[in-house]
Design brief:
Elements (H helix, E strand, L loop, with lengths): L2 E2 L13 H7 L5 E6 L2 H17 L3 E6 L3 H10 L4 H6 L3 E5 L8 H13 L6 E4 L9 H16 L6 E8 L8 H9 L4 E5 L7 E4 L1
Parallel strand pairs: 2-6, 2-7, 3-4, 3-5, 5-6
Antiparallel strand pairs: 1-8, 7-8
């Protein structure tokens, strides 16, 4: 795995800073964001959505959180939510609980549902398996990330997959993060220490 690392002792390129990376993003990519700072990660995600809306792109935000809370948070971030909801460019969904024993298929069904009312090019922020704190949850997520990444050339948009690294299945965080890294084009680290940055797969 060949990685380009930002930060540390290397000279930082302008787009190696997460917020600047998002500002300059103009091609289709499958991106993960690993975070332990909820607000920092949310600001990056919302800026990604805001930039897409301003370009007239369909933008989808899907999470296990209440859609009303997400909409209020977007308004506080300076997104003209009312206008974008009215012209059907912005779509906010709550991920439905997976049926017992059907995590993978339920996740596939959720993806179809949240894309149904949008037109390409998409901007999507979502992790389809909401709970990755269990062995079953992270196993399903890894399988879906692998499927999606292999067929990404057929997806007409850019995706950010958020991962709270404090909630990934106990004792397997490092191994899991590496496997997730290999299933994305780029990874953003949004850390309380501010020692993160943007990493790329070559």
């Amino acid at each position: 795995m060949g990685l380009k690392k930002s930060g540390s002792k290397q000279k930082m390129n302008p787009c190696d800073v997460p917020t600047q990376f998002i500002e300059k993003l103009d091609d289709r990519k499958h991106i993960a964001i690993f975070y332990d700072d909820y607000d920092y990660a949310r600001n990056i995600e919302f800026q990604f959505i805001k930039n897409g809306l301003e370009k007239g792109e369909h933008c989808i935000y899907a999470t296990e959180e209440d859609p009303g809370f997400i909409i209020l948070s977007m308004i506080n971030h300076g997104i003209a939510v009312k206008n974008y909801l009215k012209n059907k460019l912005l779509h906010v969904y709550q991920i439905l609980d997976a049926k017992k024993g059907r995590l993978v298929q339920s996740a596939r069904d959720n993806l179809v549902r949240i894309l149904a009312d949008s037109k390409p090019p998409f901007r999507l922020v979502s992790r389809i398996v909401s709970d990755v704190s269990t062995a079953q949850g992270i196993s399903a997520e890894l399988k879906l990330e692998d499927e999606f990444h292999k067929s990404f050339c057929d997806f007409k948009g850019t995706v950010i997959c958020p991962y709270d690294i404090t909630k990934i299945e106990n004792n397997k965080t490092d191994k899991t993060v590496l496997r997730l890294f290999e299933r994305h084009h780029a990874v953003i680290y949004a850390l309380k220490s501010r020692q993160g940055g943007v990493f790329y797969l070559r």
